[in-house]
Prior knowledge:
Blueprint: H1 2-14, E1 32-37, E2 40-46, H2 51-62, E3 69-75, E4 79-82, E5 104-105, E6 120-123, E7 136-137, E8 141-144, H3 151-175, H4 178-186, H5 190-210, H6 217-225, E9 238-244, H7 246-253, E10 268-274
Antiparallel strand pairs: 1-2, 1-10, 2-9, 3-4, 3-10, 4-8, 5-7, 6-8, 6-9
Helix pairs in contact: 1-3, 3-5
Amino acid sequence: xxxxxxxxxxILTLCSFIACxxxxxxxxxxxxxxxxxxxxxxxxxxxxxxxxxxDNIVKLAKEGFYDxxxxxxxxxxxxxxxxxxxxxxxxDTATLGSGDTGYTIPAEFVYPKYFHRRGVLAAARMGDDVNxxxxxxxxxxxxxxxxxxxxxxxxxxxxQLNQQKLQATFDRLARQHMKxxxxxxxxxxxxxxxxxxxxxxxxxxAEVLAHMFRFTDEQKKAYTTVGGAPxxxxxxTVFGEVIEGMDVVDAIQNVKTGRADRPVENVIIKKxxxxx
Length: 276
């Protein structure tokens, strides 16, 4: 573990730098969207406490933005993704997933109230390296299908996520010392570098220990019974859930896919209607 941090520390010196199908009584209020697809209808309820995401998708739906778009990325036991405007009338060989509205939506994490259980609706986004604020795509979304996990697997995932958090925190704090690190390396001050590395590591560890990632009892129950995608929790905005048509979502996740996880036969969103 420590060797990994040492190597990252050295690299930094050389660069200036890189959802559940069951109805949830708590969420019965909210706007409803009807997705009419080539494989059947899906009804989604949007959460009122993620208003920016709710209002944005409602606006786009009313404008007909999604009509004729595809479910362009499908991964069995994980999720089905849609909303790329470039998927309208796309050729069979087109690589999809880069289309957007030209704007992003600020993250609205209502966590752990909303998490990545089977059947939830969440916003896609660019990665942390180019999107450190974890802002959402202006139009692309996904519906979680996921899989079931054992308690032991969830315990292991907690450890993994906390290690990733520690690494990311260490990298962030190390970047704050870039000028100092550069000068020490230039002076071949290995003792000073080691001391600074240890200080940054301890600072990162203390920060992570104060905010350790832990699954709640509700999350553990959901992930061990209906399933989901727990590794995404707290990183992507969850803003709705399927209230009817999870069988359609399951049918979509089981289609044959080709390059870039695109369905071989198009799965089309014919129309999106608000309030149906």
